[in-house]
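Subject: for your reference before the review

Hello V.,

The reviewers asked for a structural picture of the protein, and I figured it would be easier to keep everything in one thread rather than splitting it across files. Below is the amino acid sequence we used in the manuscript, unchanged from the supplementary table.
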Amino acid sequence: MTTIAGSGQRGWKDGDALKATFKEPNSLSLVNNKLYLADSGNHALRIIDLSSGEVRTLQFSNLASALPNIPEANTLLVQLPTQVVAPGTSTLLVSFYFSKDYHFTAATPSHLKVSPSKHEAVILSETLLTWSTDETSFTVPILFEMIENEVEITATGVIYFCRTGKEALCLIQPVQLVAPIQVSTTTTEDEVLVEYMLPAIRNRH
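And here is what came back from the structure prediction:
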Protein backbone atom coordinates (compact mmCIF):
# COMPACT_ATOMS: atom_id res chain seq x y z
CA MET A 1 0.00 0.00 0.00
CA THR A 2 1.33 3.44 -0.97
CA THR A 3 0.23 6.74 0.54
CA ILE A 4 -0.18 9.47 -2.09
CA ALA A 5 -1.60 12.16 0.18
CA GLY A 6 -2.27 12.87 3.83
CA SER A 7 -0.09 13.10 6.93
CA GLY A 8 -2.39 10.85 8.94
CA GLN A 9 -3.61 13.77 11.05
CA ARG A 10 -7.09 15.28 10.88
CA GLY A 11 -7.30 18.90 9.76
CA TRP A 12 -7.32 21.23 6.76
CA LYS A 13 -3.93 21.94 5.28
CA ASP A 14 -2.96 22.33 1.62
CA GLY A 15 0.51 22.12 0.09
CA ASP A 16 2.81 19.10 -0.05
CA ALA A 17 0.60 16.04 -0.53
CA LEU A 18 2.27 13.95 2.20
CA LYS A 19 1.99 16.81 4.71
CA ALA A 20 -1.57 17.77 3.80
CA THR A 21 -4.42 17.07 6.21
CA PHE A 22 -8.03 16.09 5.57
CA LYS A 23 -11.15 15.54 7.65
CA GLU A 24 -13.46 12.70 6.55
CA PRO A 25 -12.39 12.55 2.86
CA ASN A 26 -14.87 10.72 0.61
CA SER A 27 -15.37 9.77 -3.04
CA LEU A 28 -12.44 10.02 -5.45
CA SER A 29 -12.73 11.15 -9.06
CA LEU A 30 -9.69 11.14 -11.38
CA VAL A 31 -9.64 13.96 -13.97
CA ASN A 32 -6.55 14.93 -16.01
CA ASN A 33 -4.13 13.27 -13.53
CA LYS A 34 -5.77 15.08 -10.63
CA LEU A 35 -7.75 13.37 -7.89
CA TYR A 36 -10.84 15.28 -6.78
CA LEU A 37 -12.23 14.29 -3.39
CA ALA A 38 -15.06 15.53 -1.22
CA ASP A 39 -13.53 16.49 2.14
CA SER A 40 -16.89 16.31 3.90
CA GLY A 41 -15.58 17.09 7.39
CA ASN A 42 -14.22 20.41 6.12
CA HIS A 43 -17.16 20.98 3.73
CA ALA A 44 -14.73 21.43 0.85
CA LEU A 45 -13.62 19.90 -2.43
CA ARG A 46 -9.90 19.07 -2.39
CA ILE A 47 -7.63 18.37 -5.35
CA ILE A 48 -4.57 16.11 -5.26
CA ASP A 49 -2.30 16.89 -8.21
CA LEU A 50 -0.53 13.60 -8.98
CA SER A 51 2.01 15.34 -11.23
CA SER A 52 3.19 18.02 -8.80
CA GLY A 53 2.48 16.21 -5.54
CA GLU A 54 0.51 19.18 -4.24
CA VAL A 55 -2.90 19.43 -2.57
CA ARG A 56 -5.18 22.43 -2.89
CA THR A 57 -8.76 23.39 -2.11
CA LEU A 58 -10.98 24.06 -5.13
CA GLN A 59 -12.27 27.62 -5.28
CA PHE A 60 -15.40 28.37 -7.33
CA SER A 61 -14.31 31.75 -8.66
CA ASN A 62 -14.56 31.11 -12.40
CA LEU A 63 -17.17 28.45 -13.10
CA ALA A 64 -17.73 29.50 -16.71
CA SER A 65 -14.16 28.70 -17.73
CA ALA A 66 -14.04 25.48 -15.70
CA LEU A 67 -17.16 23.81 -17.07
CA PRO A 68 -16.01 22.97 -20.62
CA ASN A 69 -12.96 21.06 -19.35
CA ILE A 70 -14.81 18.01 -18.02
CA PRO A 71 -13.44 14.94 -19.87
CA GLU A 72 -16.06 12.83 -21.60
CA ALA A 73 -14.76 9.63 -20.01
CA ASN A 74 -15.71 10.88 -16.54
CA THR A 75 -19.06 12.36 -17.50
CA LEU A 76 -22.48 10.75 -17.20
CA LEU A 77 -23.95 11.21 -20.70
CA VAL A 78 -27.75 11.31 -20.95
CA GLN A 79 -29.48 11.55 -24.34
CA LEU A 80 -33.08 12.66 -23.81
CA PRO A 81 -35.90 12.04 -26.32
CA THR A 82 -36.84 14.76 -28.79
CA GLN A 83 -39.41 17.22 -27.45
CA VAL A 84 -41.69 19.41 -29.59
CA VAL A 85 -42.82 22.95 -28.76
CA ALA A 86 -45.02 25.54 -30.42
CA PRO A 87 -43.49 28.64 -32.06
CA GLY A 88 -42.73 31.55 -29.74
CA THR A 89 -41.33 31.74 -26.20
CA SER A 90 -41.11 28.47 -24.26
CA THR A 91 -39.73 27.35 -20.89
CA LEU A 92 -36.83 24.94 -20.41
CA LEU A 93 -37.16 23.22 -17.02
CA VAL A 94 -33.79 21.89 -15.83
CA SER A 95 -34.37 19.46 -12.99
CA PHE A 96 -32.36 17.00 -10.89
CA TYR A 97 -33.75 14.85 -8.11
CA PHE A 98 -32.47 12.00 -5.99
CA SER A 99 -33.43 8.46 -5.20
CA LYS A 100 -33.93 7.58 -1.54
CA ASP A 101 -31.17 8.47 0.98
CA TYR A 102 -29.34 11.12 -1.11
CA HIS A 103 -29.46 14.92 -1.26
CA PHE A 104 -27.55 17.93 -2.61
CA THR A 105 -24.87 19.45 -0.38
CA ALA A 106 -24.94 23.19 0.32
CA ALA A 107 -21.26 23.03 1.30
CA THR A 108 -20.22 22.67 -2.34
CA PRO A 109 -22.17 24.42 -5.13
CA SER A 110 -23.37 22.32 -8.06
CA HIS A 111 -23.22 23.98 -11.45
CA LEU A 112 -24.32 23.60 -15.08
CA LYS A 113 -23.58 25.35 -18.34
CA VAL A 114 -26.52 25.37 -20.76
CA SER A 115 -25.66 25.77 -24.44
CA PRO A 116 -27.30 25.15 -27.84
CA SER A 117 -25.77 23.12 -30.66
CA LYS A 118 -26.10 26.23 -32.84
CA HIS A 119 -26.01 29.60 -31.08
CA GLU A 120 -27.97 31.27 -33.87
CA ALA A 121 -30.77 28.69 -33.56
CA VAL A 122 -32.13 29.66 -30.13
CA ILE A 123 -32.17 32.51 -27.59
CA LEU A 124 -31.66 31.46 -23.94
CA SER A 125 -32.42 33.69 -20.93
CA GLU A 126 -29.78 31.90 -18.79
CA THR A 127 -26.69 29.89 -19.67
CA LEU A 128 -24.89 29.35 -16.34
CA LEU A 129 -26.65 27.79 -13.35
CA THR A 130 -25.17 27.49 -9.85
CA TRP A 131 -26.98 26.33 -6.74
CA SER A 132 -26.23 25.50 -3.10
CA THR A 133 -28.85 23.52 -1.21
CA ASP A 134 -29.31 20.49 1.02
CA GLU A 135 -32.63 19.64 -0.61
CA THR A 136 -33.40 16.42 -2.50
CA SER A 137 -34.35 18.16 -5.75
CA PHE A 138 -33.56 21.25 -7.83
CA THR A 139 -35.54 22.77 -10.69
CA VAL A 140 -34.92 26.05 -12.50
CA PRO A 141 -36.91 27.51 -15.44
CA ILE A 142 -35.07 29.05 -18.40
CA LEU A 143 -37.01 31.02 -21.00
CA PHE A 144 -36.01 30.35 -24.61
CA GLU A 145 -37.16 31.15 -28.11
CA MET A 146 -36.39 28.99 -31.13
CA ILE A 147 -35.09 30.83 -34.19
CA GLU A 148 -34.71 27.65 -36.25
CA ASN A 149 -36.95 24.57 -36.33
CA GLU A 150 -34.48 22.15 -34.72
CA VAL A 151 -31.74 22.44 -32.10
CA GLU A 152 -30.06 20.42 -29.36
CA ILE A 153 -29.67 22.03 -25.95
CA THR A 154 -26.93 20.59 -23.75
CA ALA A 155 -26.56 21.00 -19.98
CA THR A 156 -23.01 20.19 -18.85
CA GLY A 157 -21.62 20.46 -15.34
CA VAL A 158 -20.92 18.83 -12.00
CA ILE A 159 -23.38 17.73 -9.32
CA TYR A 160 -22.22 17.39 -5.70
CA PHE A 161 -24.35 15.32 -3.35
CA CYS A 162 -24.23 13.27 -0.15
CA ARG A 163 -25.81 10.22 1.38
CA THR A 164 -28.25 10.85 4.22
CA GLY A 165 -27.44 9.31 7.60
CA LYS A 166 -24.43 8.50 9.75
CA GLU A 167 -22.15 7.50 6.87
CA ALA A 168 -22.58 10.89 5.13
CA LEU A 169 -20.67 9.71 2.05
CA CYS A 170 -20.33 12.58 -0.42
CA LEU A 171 -20.04 12.05 -4.17
CA ILE A 172 -19.09 13.95 -7.31
CA GLN A 173 -20.99 13.38 -10.57
CA PRO A 174 -20.02 15.16 -13.80
CA VAL A 175 -23.06 15.17 -16.11
CA GLN A 176 -24.04 16.06 -19.64
CA LEU A 177 -27.72 16.05 -20.64
CA VAL A 178 -28.64 16.50 -24.30
CA ALA A 179 -32.20 17.54 -25.20
CA PRO A 180 -33.19 17.69 -28.91
CA ILE A 181 -35.99 20.22 -29.52
CA GLN A 182 -38.21 20.78 -32.55
CA VAL A 183 -40.74 23.51 -33.37
CA SER A 184 -44.15 22.59 -34.79
CA THR A 185 -47.36 24.50 -35.44
CA THR A 186 -49.34 21.33 -34.66
CA THR A 187 -48.71 21.56 -30.90
CA THR A 188 -49.46 24.08 -28.15
CA GLU A 189 -46.75 22.72 -25.85
CA ASP A 190 -44.54 25.46 -24.37
CA GLU A 191 -42.34 23.52 -21.93
CA VAL A 192 -39.29 21.31 -22.38
CA LEU A 193 -38.26 19.13 -19.44
CA VAL A 194 -34.57 18.31 -18.97
CA GLU A 195 -34.44 16.10 -15.89
CA TYR A 196 -32.48 13.22 -14.41
CA MET A 197 -32.61 11.15 -11.23
CA LEU A 198 -29.36 10.66 -9.33
CA PRO A 199 -27.26 8.93 -8.16
CA ALA A 200 -25.86 7.15 -11.19
CA ILE A 201 -23.21 5.11 -9.42
CA ARG A 202 -21.10 3.06 -11.78
CA ASN A 203 -18.57 0.36 -11.04
CA ARG A 204 -15.00 1.57 -11.46
CA HIS A 205 -12.35 -0.82 -12.70
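For the response letter, the relevant points are probably these. The two ends are 18 Å apart (CA to CA). Helices lie at 63-66.

Happy to draft the paragraph if you're swamped.

O.
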